[in-house]
Amino acid sequence: MNVEKIIQEIYLQIIEIEDEGQVASYIPELANVDATKFGVHISTIDHLHFGIGHCYDKFSIQSIAKVLSLSLAYKILGEKIWERLGVEPSGTGFNSLVQLEADNGIPRNPFINAGAIVISDILLSNLENPKEDFLAFVRNLSDNSEINYSDKIATSEKIVGYRNAALCHFIKSFGNIQNEPADVLNFYFDLCSLEMNCQELSELFLYLANHGSNVVDNHSILTKSQSKRMNALMQTCGFYDESGEFAFKVGLPGKSGVGGGIIAIHPNQYAIAVWSPKLNKKGNSYKGMRFLEEFTTKTQLSIF
Ligand code: GLU
Fold this sequence. Notes:
Layout lengths: L2 H14 L5 E2 L15 E6 L4 E5 L5 E2 L4 H13 L20 H5 L10 H14 L3 H12 L9 H9 L2 H12 L7 H12 L2 E2 L1 H7 L19 H14 L5 H7 L4 E3 L4 E6 L3 E6 L2 E2 L6 H14 L5
Antiparallel strand pairs: 1-9, 2-3, 2-8, 4-5, 6-7, 7-8
This protein binds glutamic acid (GLU).
């Protein structure tokens, strides 16, 4: 099977369709992105690397970073982490407050904002220099020192981050945040502001296609069991309240971000990153989802 050719064909097909999505504008700086950008890059564990379109343009990875912060926190705390948050799909929007009261401040999963804020708190308590140490962890995943935060995006989100502030304070009222909310939120906004391109994303996320180990030198980032669980969480909770739809149409574990990026993993095979900034009503990249649906249908390379 010629995967490059299939990607090219689907790319040319999807670039032509009318984009029914809207660029995220609740973070002012995200609204300035060129909405016509569209990039795809695949990296396989047997060393195929292929990209098309704007796959070398950096963009704001936003919630995709939640997989990386969870990986580091999971590596540090192990299974104890699940005392602070759950592993169930929420069925609510990514920034929803509604379940937290009934659940006594225990977020349903690490990929909704409430859960990622608790993970940020865990990292703050366990890292000496949280911002620097987290960046070093991310850079080390794919030996890529080009990866960085965007202060512009982080500041832009911080100025309007009332809902995340509400989540953080509310969780703290239940005793599930240990640090000062302002510090937790600053760190959360920083990690959401990471910028990468599709090539960097697909290469970096290969560890989750390779049982938690780096594909180049085989060093272990997560245990096999942790890697399995990360994939399970991405499958069930990675696409806000559209996770079922993504499993149904695409059939891969993955994670999206409001910057229009999606990373999807096929354990034992590949990681693929897609970026198109306009989002559907559930907050996932409209063309990104359409592309991946076609890709796993044509190649039959889904996990189901
Ligand atoms: N920084 C964003 C927020 O908290 C992340 C949202 C996302 O990408 O899902 O609203």
